[in-house]
Each structure stands twice: as structure tokens, then as C-alpha cells.
Specification:
Layout: E1 4-11, E2 14-21, E3 31-33, E4 48-55, E5 60-66, E6 70-71, E7 74-75, E8 79-82, E9 87-88, E10 98-105, E11 110-116, E12 120-121, E13 124-125, E14 129-132, E15 137-138, E16 141-142, E17 145-146, E18 152-158, E19 161-166, E20 170-171, E21 174-175, E22 179-182, E23 187-189, E24 202-208, E25 217-222, E26 226-227, E27 230-231, E28 235-238, E29 243-244, E30 255-262, E31 265-271, E32 274-275, E33 278-279, E34 283-286, E35 291-293, E36 302-309, E37 314-324, E38 327-333, E39 338-340, E40 349-356, E41 363-369, E42 373-374, E43 377-378, E44 382-386, H1 404-412, H2 439-450
Antiparallel strand pairs: 1-2, 3-44, 4-5, 5-8, 6-7, 8-9, 10-11, 11-14, 12-13, 14-15, 16-17, 18-19, 19-22, 20-21, 22-23, 24-25, 25-28, 26-27, 28-29, 30-31, 31-34, 32-33, 34-35, 36-37, 37-38, 38-39, 40-41, 41-44, 42-43
Length: 451
């Protein structure tokens, strides 16, 4: 793949000859990876709305749900497993659309939970929510009562309980208004029988653990105006025994579509212009006491949020229907405002997951939606924003390529033994870490290049 070079250094009577690849890592990063599946027919034939990582005993894999009938050109009904080289089926899939996927251990092992608007998973009647154990589907409930009576759109896990949100009003016959709790054996409402749950649909759930400023609590977002007996617009908090508002509400008529807890901050995205009385365009953050806008916000719906480190440090990423100068529908929070990620996608981004690139085990941010292109490259509804690999020792030019340019930088820094402090910018050339740059560093350079 790479050509080979011969570099000879002559210093006094010592010759160091290096023969190695002209490019140890010829890659620009971070960058898009689009062939998730057979090259040319990768991805799915319609929209992706949920992504999760799960190990069914055969190693970690990426599970993708949505409203599609094919993945990688193969028949896959609304859900499929990406194993790093191809798309596997989960039985016969689901009878209709999948909106949410998560993992949950009820004490008997970690399983995959799938929610949406479907009557069947495989050949099993399940009513909008199902469990996949790696080989078969099962319903949540007992006897003739199972599942929920309308769509499931969000999951959250806290203290051994699975929280399920959506547009349903009953779970196995119990009155559970748009949210319910599953403990592995039975369903329970959140609140009293008369005033449990929410008065409108739930689109997002995030949880905060005990010991955090935000926790322990289950945060719920959607299009409701009350939680139990508490008046609150679009966002609420379940403390384990009661409902509460979250430092105020979003503006009436708005909707919260996505929630993320990271470093004890609650990040919220959706279609709103005000958070807790603070102007905030479609995205905001809450520190447990007060709301803050995130720069100038975004100009259209924010449908999904995730935290990802592309090699330059963890950052918040957003997907949705918005546009930015230089890019569309996919953006990174810099700490002061939003910047586009590449040129973005040509249609909505509705799901993000930070996970492993199953081929190289480098981290990647999986991006799903209803697009057919990322930057200028065809990509059917799913792609990956791939992180940078670890720095290459001796890569003084910072391009992840070890080549003649790096050799030249090494030569420019040559100072000899006991030369004192390194010259500014020569830290990368001190490969043996003895605070000078001499022939020993060239020997290390040669070893890196030829290993």
C-alpha cells in the first residue's frame, strides 16, 4: 500500500540508514467512514432512528433500528446487527418501525431491549416493546398481558430499573401515562394511580446516578405540560418517589426531543426557544441549579445528542434538521458555540452513538438518519465519524504520517549530547526523552518506522 524510502544520515563518522514505509499512517482524521456494509450498497434502504452497542456473547456489535427493510442489500426488517463486516438479522426483525434500543440487565444477564410501534418481534406478539437475548425474541409481561398499548420512543436505566417512555397509556393493563418502570418481572407506574406519568408524549429519557449533583433522578423530555400534579412544560424529573420540574420549563408549545447527562450537566435538545426563562435556541444545558444557552443555539430541530472524543478531547455533538455556515445537520459544541462537522449530511440526523470501530477498535461516532450523503460521499442513512488514532511518535508535522517531512524536522532539531534545554518546537524529536536530540533519537525514529 505504501512505498518505501531509504534515508541516510551522516554525522561525523556515524551513518544511520533507515529503510521503511514512506507513510506509517496515511490518513486524514477525524474523517467519515461510509462503507458500513458491502461497499456501494452499505447502510439501510430507509431511515435509521436508533443505534446501540451490545454483546450477545459473540463480541460487541452495533445494533441499528428504524424504518427499513434492507441493510447492506440484505432483507432486514427494521432492525439489524452490524458485526464489523456485515449485517446480521435478529430473527425476522420487527413488524414495524423501531424508535429506541438499549441494553438492560434484570439480574439474569444483559439483554437488548427494543421499542417502537410494532405488534410483533419475529413471530412473537410483543406490543411495541421486546427483548432480544442474542438468539430469540420475548415479550415483557406475563400470561396474556404484555407490552404497552402505544409507541415506545425512549429508554433509560437507573438503579436496576428500566424506564420506558412513549405515547402509551397502559402497560400490561396498568394505567401508566406515557412512562413506566420495568424491573425484569413486572411493570409499575411512576406516581399515584390518578396522577401518574405525563399528560403528553415522552420522546427522551436520561438518568443521573446517586452522588451526582443531578442525581439520583430520571429526566424526561417530550411534549407534555404536566408531570403527575406538577405543572411543567416539556421537561420533568422523577426523583424515585415524586415528580418535580427542572429549574423551570421550556416554552409552552415546544418539545424536548433528546437528553444527555455528561459530567454532571444535563444537555437538552429539541424544538424550543426558551429554557427555564433563558432564551435558548433548540439546545440548552442545566447544571442542577440554572439553565444556560449554548452559544447562539441552532436554527432548527435538535433530535439527538452524544459525547465523543475525536482525538482532541471529549465534546458534545448534535444531530438534527439545522444548518450552519459550512455544514448541515451535524455539529460540535466548542465550549462557546457550535461548529459544523465536515459538510454534514444532506438530510436529517436522528441518532448518534459513540462506540468502537469494530474493524480497528478505534472509537467512532455512529451517525444515523434519513440522509443519502455525508460531505460529498454517498452513504445510506448511516455513517461513522471516525476518531484520530493515538499520536505517532516522531510525527513532528502532526499529520499521522511518518515520512521525510518528519525526518527533516528531526534533523533540524539535532543538537548533540548535553546540549541543554530543547529548542522550542523540538519536543516531538526527543524520542528517547533525555532532553536533547542526538543520534539516539534517530535510532528510535528508525525503529518506529520499521516496526
Amino acid at each position: 500500500m505504501f512505498g518505501r524510502i531509504k534515508i541516510t544520515l551522516w554525522v561525523g563518522t556515524i551513518i544511520v540508514t533507515i529503510i521503511g514505509c514512506s507513510a506509517l499512517r496515511a490518513q486524514i482524521c477525524p474523517a467519515w467512514y461510509t462503507d458500513i456494509g458491502t461497499p456501494g450498497i452499505g447502510g439501510t434502504n430507509s431511515s435509521v432512528t436508533a443505534i446501540a452497542e451490545y454483546d450477545d456473547g459473540n463480541g460487541p456489535a452495533i445494533y441499528v433500528g428504524g424504518r427499513f427493510s434492507q441493510a447492506g442489500g440484505l432483507s432486514r426488517a427494521n432492525i439489524a446487527k452490524w458485526n464489523g463486516s456485515g449485517w446480521d438479522a435478529l430473527g425476522n426483525g420487527t413488524s414495524e418501525v423501531v424508535f429506541a434500543i438499549t441494553t438492560y440487565d434484570d439480574g439474569g444477564g444483559n439483554d437488548l431491549y427494543v421499542g417502537g410501534y410494532f405488534a410483533y418481534a419475529g413471530l412473537t406478539a410483543v406490543n411495541n416493546i421486546a427483548r432480544w437475548d442474542g438468539s430469540s425474541w420475548s415479550f415483557l409481561g406475563s400470561g396474556g398481558s404484555y407490552g404497552v398499548n402505544n409507541a415506545v420512543k425512549a429508554f433509560g436505566v437507573l438503579d436496576g430499573k428500566l424506564y420506558v417512555g412513549g405515547s402509551f397509556t397502559r402497560a400490561t393493563g396498568l394505567v401508566c401515562n406515557r412512562i413506566a418502570q420495568w424491573d425484569g418481572a413486572s411493570w409499575a407506574p411512576l406516581g399515584t394511580a390518578a396522577l401518574n406519568g405525563l399528560n403528553g408524549s415522552v420522546s427522551a429519557i436520561a438518568t443521573a446516578e446517586s452522588g451526582e449533583t443531578l442525581g439520583p433522578a430520571v429526566y424526561v423530555g417530550g411534549s407534555f405540560s404536566s408531570a403527575g400534579s406538577v405543572s411543567t412544560s416539556c421537561i420533568a424529573k422523577w426523583t424515585g418517589s415524586a415528580w418535580d420540574n427542572v429549574g423551570g420549563s421550556m416554552n409552552a408549545g415546544g418539545t424536548v426531543l433528546t437528553l444527555l447527562v455528561h459530567d454532571d450537566i444535563l444537555y437538552v435538545g429539541g424544538k424550543f426557544t426558551n429554557a427555564g426563562g433563558v432564551p435558548a435556541n433548540r439546545v440548552a444545558m442545566f447544571d442542577g441549579v440554572s439553565w444556560s444557552p449554548m452559544g447562539s443555539g441552532l436554527n432548527n430541530d435538535v433530535q439527538t445528542l452524544a459525547v465523543f472524543d475525536d482525538g482532541s478531547g471529549p465534546a458534545i455533538y448534535a444531530g438534527g434538521s439545522f444548518t450552519l455556515t459550512g455544514g448541515s445537520r451535524f455539529a460540535r459544541w466548542t465550549g462557546s458555540d457550535w461548529e459544523p462537522v465536515g459538510d454534514g449530511t444532506n438530510n436529517a440526523v436522528t441518532a448518534l452513538l459513540a462506540g468502537d470501530d469494530l474493524g480497528s477498535e478505534l472509537p467512532g461516532l455512529y451517525v444515523g438518519g434519513s440522509f443519502t450523503q455525508v460531505d460529498t460521499v454517498p452513504s445510506n442513512n448511516i455513517a461513522m465519524w471516525k476518531a484520530c488514532p493515538p499520536p505517532v511518535p516522531g510525527d513532528c508535522t502532526g499529520d499521522y504520517i511518518l515520512d521525510l517531512d518528519d525526518y527533516a524536522e528531526l534533523a533540524n532539531c539535532l543538537a548533540g549530547p548535553n546540549a541543554g534545554a530543547l529548542s522550542a518546537g523540538c519536543e516531538c524529536a526527543d524520542l528517547d526523552e533525555d532532553s536533547d536530540v542526538d543520534l539516539a533519537d534517530f535510532a528510535v525514529f528508525a525503529k518506529i518506522l520499521t516496526d
